[in-house]
Amino acid sequence: xxxxxxxxxxxxxxxxxxxxxxxxxxxxxxxxxxxxxxxxxxxxxxxxxxxxxxxxxxxxxxxxxxxxxxxxxxxxxxxxxxxxxxxxxxxxxxxxxxxxxxxxxxxxxxxxxxxxxxxxxxxxxxxxxxxxxxxxxxxxxxxxxxxxxxxxxxxxxxxxxxxxxxxxxxxxxxxxxxxxxxxxxxxxxxxxxxxxxxxxxxxxxxxxxxxxxxxxxxxxxxxxxxxxxxxxxxxxxxxxxxxxxxxxxxxxxxxxxxxxxxxxxxxxxxxxxxxxxxxxxxxxxxxxxxxxxxxxxxxxxxxxxxxxxxxxxxxxxxxxxxxxxxxxxxxxxxxxxxxxxxxxxxxxxxxxxxxxxxxxxxxxxxxxxxxxxxxx
Length: 376
Known about the structure:
CATH architecture of the domain at 7-45 and 162-230 and 318-370: 3-Layer(bba) Sandwich
Largest sheet: 8 strands, mixed
Number of helices: 10
Radius of gyration: 21 Å
């Protein structure tokens, strides 16, 4: 007879899997239920992997606090995963050029505060405003039309599909059970606790439950008496193929970005579309992304586009995730609503969620008061 896991995690995206990693390191046993035919195939696979929110000074402090953890710890986590699995998450400290420079005061204040939190070296250069000469030195392929930029030299990236493959392999090696085609349909509750979940492959039970189902989280919670302000937001991307090293820096302009990969691919994203659970790609998005990419980097006009795809982000108010206990069921933890920033916010979110699982007797009102992430 198979032993029952201590914790069932609903959702095999980066949030659920990073939380599984935290729990397994704490000696817990974990089962991940994934609705698809494999883990990490939704927005965690589809995203860009930039390790900083886009225009981070526009977000609430809660997002910055989680970003600090990701910025500091991703290099080591990626290296540890590569060593353990042989699958390279492709962490690269690319540096990040932002070409929208109208918000200098806000950006510089945010950068000073962020830099103090992530570095003990007060002289380290985390942010600067640069002119055309420095822009062409840092990224020679950038259009000459851009005369100023914000430069973040220490910002990195991971390659989402590689990160997910490495993370999944690491968890399996550590004993985490990842069950595909296990769509959760209902929470069974009794005496203030979840006692089991009904899934497409039968009833599953554990002591603790973590909901990390991304854009599907709100739907799953409807039957438990709460309404969570999370909705699917489609993001489309296209992929160029160039020579390795042709483009070196992450570039952002007018909400569109380019991310160069080690093998020469350049990811161009992304759209923000409120179309429900529709993942179809469109010609209009293709043209919009292509024009934005070529406007930033003219040489991409002659580079082939080899792929277009879409993902559904878990959209939330102000991009702040909900990380908290269910108000009625103490052993159900919710960790969802990361919108566009699941990768960079994932490490900090997983730590908070795992702490809630590991400390079932913690005072709930105290957690709500001290955590800026709960909106329950």
